[in-house]
Amino acid sequence: GLILISDLLKDSDAEFEPYHLETPEAVFAKVWARDLLLRVLVLLEENCRSTGKEVHYELFRRRIIDPALNGTKAPSVQELAREFGMAEKQASNCIVTAKRAYQRLLRDEIMTYVGSEEELEEEIRDLYKFLTAN
Predict the structure, then answer these.
(1) How far is 3 from 91, CA to CA, in rounded Å?
(2) pLDDT tens digit string along 41-78?
(3) Rounded Cα gap, residues 21 and 12, in angstroms
(4) Is the pTM of this model over 0.85?
(5) DSSP secondary structure letters along 9-68
(6) Which of 30, 28, 6 is nearest to 16 (CA)?
(7) In sequence order, what DSSP letters do the residues of 91-133 get, joined into one string?
(8) Interval 36-42 mean pLDDT
(9) Which of 75, 66, 69, 73 is nearest to 16 (CA)?
(10) How many CB atoms lie within 10 A of CB 101?
């Protein structure tokens, strides 16, 4: 099945190897993976803005994406709920909704350049490998 984006991005402490220790292919793959994640994030932001779900996007970005891409500590759902003036359960639901939308957009984006469901799963596995590589 599909790897959850939270699984893809949960290892926020993982540091990429210095470029000089990696093959050009590995460097390219990491740059490509980061670019893909950011491109899909832009699609999610546009999607959320057009449907009045800006808060969903902001909560998802702050809780999951920013920490994963920047190697910073994720704020707790409780902290975010307080900051956005909502119940913790509501904040949590917004994050889950945005995460599902992100997964769909990620799959759609990858499907534009792979020919089959099998290749899609392989690309997602590769993406997972690069994002969790120590």
Answers:
(1) 22
(2) 999 999 999 999 999 999 999 998 888 777 789 999 99
(3) 21
(4) no
(5) H--TTPPPPPGGGS-HHHHHHHHHHHHHHHHHHHHHHHHHHHTT-HHHHHHHIIIIIHHH
(6) 30
(7) HHHHHHHHHHHHHHHHHHHHHTT-SSHHHHHHHHHHHHHHHH-
(8) 89
(9) 69
(10) 21
